[in-house]
From TrEMBL:
Record-linked InterPro entries: ETF_a/b_N (IPR014730), ETF_b (IPR012255), ETF_beta_N (IPR033948), Rossmann-like_a/b/a_fold (IPR014729)
Keywords recorded for this protein, A-Z: Oxidoreductase
Record protein name field: Electron transfer flavoprotein small subunit
Residues spanning the signal sequence: none
One of the Pfam families matching this protein, by short name: ETF
Superkingdom of origin: Bacteria
Keyword Glycoprotein attributed: no
Coiled-coil zones: none
Domain (Electron transfer flavoprotein alpha/beta-subunit N-terminal) ranges: 23-213
Gene name of this polypeptide: carD_5
Keyword Oxidoreductase: yes
An example Gene Ontology molecular-function term: electron transfer activity
Amino acid sequence: MDMLVCIKQVPDTEEIKKMDPATNTLIRKGVPSIVSPYDKNALEAAVQLKEAQGGSVTVLSMGPEQAKDALKECISVGADRAVLITDSAFAGSDTLATSSILAAAIKKLGNFDLILCGKQAIDGDTGHVGPEIAEHLGLAQVTYAAKIEIKGDIIVVNKEHDDGYEVIEAKLPVVCTVVKSINEPRYATIKSKMMANKAKIEVLSAADLPDIDTAKTGLNGSPTRVLKTFAPPKRGSGLRIKEETAGESALKLVQKLVEAKLV
């Protein structure tokens, strides 16, 4: 069973403290980069399926040269092959452009039984790329997978909802996006890290993807624009009402609401 996992190297959002007021973008200087957490779940799902069913796992990412570090991390926890798409013509691509580039690369790399993605990246939180890849490739898609089983050429997925699960079957090949609850990603060992550091990362550029129109990629070629990014203002500590009885607390609350002209 041949599987491909799309991963993205993102800034560690827990370490981002400031925004650039002039450009309304995140200040990434000094902020470490990590593999987007949901993508780690997607990779772990693929590795577990490989261990159970046999086959191979390819990881694919689009980004700058430094994204090779993220790909090597993926190799250290079970991926067999890693491919980086990098080209200045692709810088600043929105989700539609990104998904079209990834889909073109997937076509070039071969035929895959299962393509896995995290449900969303933590820097954009759009959840667009996985489903858009499926559309570009003309494949069935199942999103928000919390459990995946393979039965011959059929995939059985427990799709997560707020109030339970929906069980969906589809014939392979399929594009599937996964949620955090699907598994607990494994850690690399010292030995696997050392082996991954020696791994060769294949690189694709715009010239390797002739089906891609570079006029429709990058910041200028993307149909969407981010007009403003900002950190929400911090909320005040609020008012705690705690009288001797519940009735007195309720009365005090009503008085405060009246004073504030909210009732």
